[in-house]
Write a structure and sequence with these properties.
Chain B: Keywords: Repeat, WD repeat. Chain B: One of its GO terms (cellular component) is ciliary basal body. Chain B: This is WD repeat-containing protein 54. The complex is a heterodimer. By secondary structure, chain A is mainly alpha-helical. Chain A is built from 14 helices and 8 strands. In chain A, the strands form 4 sheets. Chain A has a two-stranded parallel sheet. In chain A, helix 1 crosses helix 6 and helix 6 runs antiparallel to helix 7. The longest helix of chain A has 22 residues. Chain A is globular, with a radius of gyration of 23 Å. Chain A starts with 5 loop residues before the first helix and ends with a helix. By secondary structure, chain B is mainly β. Chain B is built from no helices and 29 strands. In chain B, the strands form 7 sheets. In chain B, strands 1, 2, 27, 28 and 29 form a 5-stranded antiparallel β-sheet that branches. A 4-stranded antiparallel β-sheet of chain B has the order 3-4-5-6, with no helix packed on it. A 4-stranded antiparallel β-sheet of chain B has the order 7-8-9-10, with no helix packed on it. In chain B, a hairpin with a 2-residue loop joins strand 19 and strand 20. The radius of gyration of chain B is 18 Å and the shape is globular. Chains A and B meet through helix 8, strand 4, strand 5 and helix 10 of A and strand 22 and strand 26 of B. Strand 4 of chain A pairs antiparallel with strand 22 of chain B.
Chain lengths: 380, 336
Amino acid sequence: MSSRTLPLLFINLGGEMLYILDQRLRAQNIPADKAKKVMNDIITTMFNKKFLEELFKPQELYSKKALRTVFDRLAHASIMRLNQASMDKLYDLMTMAFKYQVLLCPRPKDILLVSFNHMDAIKDFVKDTPSILSQVDETFQQLIEMYTPLSSGEFQLIRQTLLIFFQDMHIRVSIFLKDKVQNSNGRFVLPTSGPVPYGTQVPGLIRMFSCTGEEVNRLQFTNGGNYTAAVREGSFEIFGDRVTKLGTNMYSVSRPVETHMSGTSKNSAQHTKVNAAPNPLAKEELNLLAKLMGGLEVQKSGNTDSGFRVNLFATDEEEEEALISRPDELSCGIINIQATKDQQANAELAKIMGEFTESGDQSPSASSKGDDLLAMMDGL
Amino acid sequence: MYHKEKSIQIKNSASSLYNNLGVLRIGPRRLTYFTVVHANVVNMVSASWDGLNYSHRQLQSKEPNVATSTSLIIQAAFCVLPSRELLVVTSQKGIQMYESDGSIMVYWHALDTPETPTAQAVFARGISAVWDNYICVGVSSGSILVFDVPSKGSNITLSEVLEEHKEAITDMASECSGSQECIADLVSADDGGNLCIWKSGEEFQLLNKIHGFDMSCSSVKLWKGTVVAGYGTGQIRLYEAVTGILHAEVNAHARWIYSLDIAPFSGLLLSAAEDSLVRVWHLNMTPETNSVEVAHLHNECVTDTQICGAKFCDADGYAFAVTGYDLSEIIRYTQT
């Protein structure tokens, strides 16, 4: 629907990913210099100029599969490694967190404030590295220029597009369950109390007017909730108080990251059926992946001594168990570019992985090549 | 005043789209049809009045050719004309019209979609039957397409394009089809909260334009010459259509209003919003004093649900139905 949704989806999910990784790196006592390197590498890749250029073009939202692959790549942009189960869990947490933020935003425009909260935090992660910081600042400016002029209706369209992307996702997140913002059936709590959005009045008043415009009657009605007046509006500038807490880091060492995988809503299975139809336009998604990987250093296998693995679970056994017991409907068939089937596929892969030294132009040539690549990816 | 009845289960959950519930009552067959949009699919349920029989059908959005991406459906609504009833489905690619049971597609109109996506989204939204033989559909550019519908068959033609709105159309409504004479018979609303009042005919006439306040009007109804409009701020405003006089203003909801409906025989008004609440009001027109009274009657809270569709199931407002984002059921309420 809205062709301006992808940058917001990417930045907010990326922000959540960084919060989670930051917490896990500290919880696992990874040495500070290595942890910093991981965060810096991931943020540098996230804000790679060519990649962002591709991202900010007007376009439809990418399929869940393609987006998951982008984040897989991003998570592996440094010396850190994640097993399949940990990557699955990371992605579940990221998506449920952003779904929560989108649902709970009082006004659609507040999604921009949520994005700015994530951007503020990302800037803080790289505040000691001016080169990366300036990349992030530039993107911040781009976001401000692109989104602040949009109308309320256009923001609602963006929000509706995001909600279609998150439709039927009801994964239970321990931190949400503990805070009672999520029910045991995976659905979020939507309170009928608290401050109304900026620009809205507390419900309860009916005013009637004469033809000359004078108020002739006033009636009150019970609104069935417990609302208070709106709080002040958050800042849409590069620096400022965003007011909303949505999009700020909810994890800390004392509030660890966990998920419940059991009891996912049976609706998710129905939903998977609807989404199973192949997406013939995945070529554009491949373009995005190509641009992203163009920004990645090819990780040579000799780096194993400085590389390390991060576990999103408390123990390795738990991680293994999670992989085995993961409900089928949640595995969204990640495009695993490592596995290949034939020579031609290999050549296409090599091209995508950036081993070709041709600068930039990865536009799909003859449509048959693109189709073969897609067929191969879908078959994995 | 109302109590909850048994819900109707649907195949997919409802998507978060304005006015996401279509209802058509088929008296002679003692059936009611419901439509709920989920991404690129319309879920149709045919429910018998005795509550014993439910049959389901799914309609897909039509792509002009397979190579292009899936087209998301924005709205599905029943259009009741004196001679026939059609189901109109609007999407990012165009407008599909079906026989009311969804069995046959009788017409397809493709929107002008650019080769590469533009910053401004392209889609059709806002559907209304007007007078004897017109179906009007709004477009994201602000245009309104007027289709001339014959009493039977598929020879539907595009009769006129109304260019008055500058922002995306959100909703449209009409009154007075058939024998009744009305001054105004169509109202259109847009993302800027602007309302246009029209008189149908071979050439539609713009009777009035009511300017908005930069806040989207997501749902609109027309009844006895009064426009009832619901806004993103949660406010409902009632205007006299032809003059634009503001009759009443209601701070109705704490979040964006997604659906309004009126039961024309009783003057009951239904409003539903993302704040989980459905409210029932009564509208009383006093022609002598040219005033409208609004009274609040009832609230229903659908816990933890952002409501996206709410409609009366009959012209008296004896029953109504509700849909919500991520909910795979149509919740029903009947008067006690």
